[in-house]
Structures are given as C-alpha cells and as structure tokens.
Amino acid sequence: MKQDANRQSVSEILASRIVAVAPAALPARVREVAEDLVLDVAGLCIAARGTDYVRATLAAATGTGGTTAIGHARRLDCGTSALVNGTAAHGEDFDDTFEGGPVHAGAVVVPAVLAAAEEFHRDGAAALRGIAVGVETICRLSLVTPKLVHKAGFHPTAVLGTMAAAAAVGATLGLDAPQIAHGFGIAGSMAGGIIEYLADGAWTKRLHPGWAAQSGIRAALLARHGFVGPRTVFEGTHGLFNGFAHSSDGDYGKLLDGFGARWVTETLAFKPFACGTMTHPYIDCAIRLAGRGISPDAIESLTCEVAEGTVHRLWEPLAAKHAPPNAYAAKFSTPFCIAAGFVLGDAGLAAFTEETARDPRLRALAAKVRYEIDPANPYPREFTGHIRARLRSGEVAEERQPHLRGGAHEPLSRAAIEAKFFANAAFGGWPREKAEAARAAVRRLFDGPIDLGALRG
Known about the structure:
2 domains, globular, 2-methylcitrate dehydratase PrpD, single chain, CATH 3.30.1330.120, alpha/beta
C-alpha cells in the first residue's frame, strides 16, 4: 500500500473504529462468544497448571503483584500473569481458532484483558469491550495476507496477537484513538514468533500467546503514557506485514470494513480435540471409519486429500509425521491424529501423552497414512477432511468432513463448551465443586467488578 502522510494510516482508521465500540451495543452473540472464551481459557489454564512448561514460566517470574495466574495461588504483576496464562491456555493446543487465519484469539486476548482489568480496576463491561475488540482485531488481521505469515516461517498468533493484545488492553483501559494507534506502532516492534518448534520438543510455540499478551500490555501502557509508535506500522515499507509476510500489499479492507458493525468474532471455533486445528476434520473421518467396524489390521492404506497450505506443517517430512518424536509433535502430525481418532475414539488431552506417542498400535496405523494435494481445497477459508481407506480385502471405504466441527457450520453448544471446561478442570486436579464455582464466576464476569478469586488455585 502506498504511503501518504496526508491521509489516515491503517492503524489510525482502526483505532478510531475501536474507540467507537460500546459494550452495551455489542451483539448478544459476541457477548456469548466472549463468555465462552473466558471459560474455555480458564479450563485450559487449570488443565496445564502442573505441566513442566507452566512451572518453568512461573519459576522465571521475579515480580509480585495483584493479578491472577489461573489455577495458582501466587499473585503476579499484570504482564507476568498474562504471560503465564497465555502460555498455559495455548500449551496443549486445545484452544479456540479462527478458520480464516488460522489464529488463536483467546489465549492472547483473554489473558491480556483479565490482567489489565484486574491491575487497573476496570469492570466487567470494560473487559467485555476489550475481549470483543481484541478477538475481532486478531481475526481480521489474519485475513489481510492469508497464509503468508505462516509461509514466511512465523506463527500468526504470535505476530498478530501482539497487535490484538495492544488493541484489547487499550480498549479495556479506555485509551483514546491516538493512543491506541501509537500502541499498534509500539506493539509492531515487539511482535515475533518463529515457527520452528516441533522436532526437538521445544516449548517455544507454547509461549507465543503469553508473550504476545504480555507485549500487548506493555505497548498499550507505553502509549497510555505518551510513548510514540510509527503510524504506518501495518502497511509501511518496513511495517509488520512486509516484515512477517514479505508483502505489504494486503487486503486491508478485510481488517477495516465493517469493524464494530459486522463481527467475525461470532464465527470463532472452539476445539473438540487437543491438537492442530486442520487435523480435526480428519480425526472425525477416522472416528466414523472405526465406527463402521473396520479394524486397523484390515487396513492396507489410508489416503487423504489435503490442502497444499497444510502440508509443510502437518504432513512433511512424512517419515517424521508417521513416527513423531514426542507427544507435542504428535499434535501436529495428521497421520498420528488420524490413528488416535481411529484407535482411541478421541483426541483429547489423554491422547497426547509420551506414552501414547510411543503406542505401537497408533504408530503402525499412522505409518499407513498418505496424502494427495487437492488443488480445489478451500483452506484457509474452510477446514475440510477426507480419508479413503483401502482394505486388504480390496474393498474401499471413504469418509468426508466438509467443515470444522466446532466452527461456524457446526458450532459447539454451550453445554459442550462447559463439559470441556469441567473435563479440563478435572484433568488439572480440581474437584467438581471448585470447578462449579469457577464456572459461575465466569458467567457473571461481565456484569460488575472484576473478581477472579474463584479461578485461583
């Protein structure tokens, strides 16, 4: 996009639309998504509270304060609690997703907003505004240069999440439009997130949303106190998209048009499985094939039609995806996820342990999985699945999943999201009574003063 000092920049236009968003004018569905998002994030934080990576993140914290690390008794400064909660929420890759991106909104936006609201004594209405604005921002940003951030080797949730967190915190704290625009400029210098994370079991991708949430808070606070950021942070020659997507010629209309009037937030997808989102339709196909009475031993091969844009993360190198080196890598192996769905009948948290990653039954079936690129696949607009099973008898059985279950075409019910929360809380060692109190607290979160006491361990 050509720069013109005499007209508003993308960040300035977006900031003006953010400040116009009023909590009372939000559609009922946006508020419902925001409520479910906080509950989902809370459950994921509780589920991950005893993991090595969360313990390490907490141990690295040197400051104290008055904000909540969900599932823990210790109180932290707002930046650190956002870091801990964002890391925990995304750690098992069981958090929400936006199909057009893909990006994970909740693990960035919710920790940033809750920390800022708690630290600066903002009420539930301000938190609702911040969450709605932040989620809308990250989802729309992911549509500006679809697939290019991933292709360039970066994690869109980390890069775009930093910008969204700055917007979310700015809205929560009531910053004016120039301050929010400066916040975007400052956040752009903090964005990052390389995507090389699977083969050696590194924990860095788990950290990305927490780091983005923390950075967004810092950016908003710097802007609040007069720090100046570049006005053309999005479209500039040396701006965010040129740096992280290798192109500044994006469709900025996808970000700006109808912002605050038409909400893509309403289409946010909640995950039924604890693994990479694009694998989900294939898991559903595998579960249905198993339900037809086909045994793993009867299978000669499983061939999947896939989108070219998913191959480099979920299918290649194929030998490594057939035998993932650890449980975390297994979450991003479509062959392993298919095997888990077929053999275990599910792909929840229990399907991705170090023990299951070495399970010979799952590895034997995963080794039979191949892929063919379908040039007509609608990814990333929609996530689809397909498996063609060739049996040793010569018979062929086939299943297709036309969309992401849990997404816009087949959203999870509120009852299903609450069941997921209770299962995650139990996984994290919380008794049902404590989980019930936490759910009740979340359901009234936006109706008065922010009180996260029920979410502490």
